[in-house]
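LOG
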Amino acid sequence: MHHRTIFDTPFVNTLLRRLSVAILKSTGWTVEGQLPPHAAKSVLIAAPHTSNWDLPYTLMLAFVLRLRVYWMGKQSIFRWPFGGLMRWLGGIPVNRGQASNLVALSAQAMRDAQGPMQLIVPPEGTRGKTRHWKTGFYFIAQQAGVPIVLAFVDYERKVGGLGPLFELTGDVEADMAAIKAFYAPIKGKNADQFEV
């Protein structure tokens, strides 16, 4: 899972960071938050996830915030000719039909990672409308022994970035309710598709 990405490519990373700062600023976006040093290894929730635009905005925010992100995407977007590019952008293909050991593999990859690694996981698991949030991100963080960061892209306010760290209590139901409460006021690009 841990492969070389655009975030490990010094010249390109610097160039894209400057470009991301310029694009976000010129389009009226504000970036909030920063990653605390003790959260260099962490799971970032990506919510709301309602549009294909979420990926470019997420990548720009990652450059501005100097993150080293990996993200999960459905296997079909990793087909030729875009597969290599998607992996270089930090993508990890997920076969939804065989996702049963994904949590254990992801947690192991985080424990084994040399240096920083932020794994972005969309809890909805789809861009389409859904009421149900998958708990994979929760158990990846729990098994890897890393915090969860409440990351967001709010299209209504044109603000994106990192919210607070969320320390797991072990009470999944209560923790999920608290996490969803943070996301309740945040609007995705297609806001009608996001429900907490």
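LOG (cont.) second protein
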Amino acid sequence: MAETTEPHFHGHRQRLRERVLKNPQETESYELLELLLGYVLKRCDTKPLAKELLNHFGSLWGILNAHPAELESIKGFGESSKIFFILLRELVARYFMEPIKEKKSVGLDDIAMLARCRLDGLSHEEIWVALLDNNNRLLSFDKVHTGNTDSAFCSPKMIAEIAITKKATALVLVHNHPGGVTKASWADRETTLHIQKVMNLMGIRLLDHLIIADGKVISLADNHLLAENTILFNDNDKSIL
């Protein structure tokens, strides 16, 4: 019988694991990605795929924020890899979200972080709402509606039902611009003002509307696009990256 030999990349992968265990900070991004892919694609050399993903999407951030259909367009990236990356993104999102949810009081930066974890990189619009109590404690961060590539419908009734159920006294509205437009549209402002009026009648304060676009967070309140309202966050809490 012919003697079987391990593929050449097995030894390389083991040496790479040892390097990561010794000092992960010195590992190149493509090498980290190569090792991660190795847990899914155990019988092939994952270095070419790792380099192609980085070349196509520009960074690890770009890869994690890519739509699954975009990832599958890369040769060698199949169903198992897609599921793995969906799980990886969800783990990263929860890693950042869980400490915020445990805080006794949150600021606008915290909500912006939650928004980016959920909305950065989506190819369609989604509307979310952060619900708070009188002590600025985050009660929940909920998806209200899933739209298409350039719009999403949101009625005050949708938000009111969630706010009443969670016994919220204040909220921050959040949605994304998949096309990367980093300013509020006329429709964004008019819809927000309408929601704000309805919430005020119910004794619920709409504190801000954040738009996630091209890795940035835009605040309608900071851009003076909301009606005057009671200020919940102080100046130190309102800085948004």
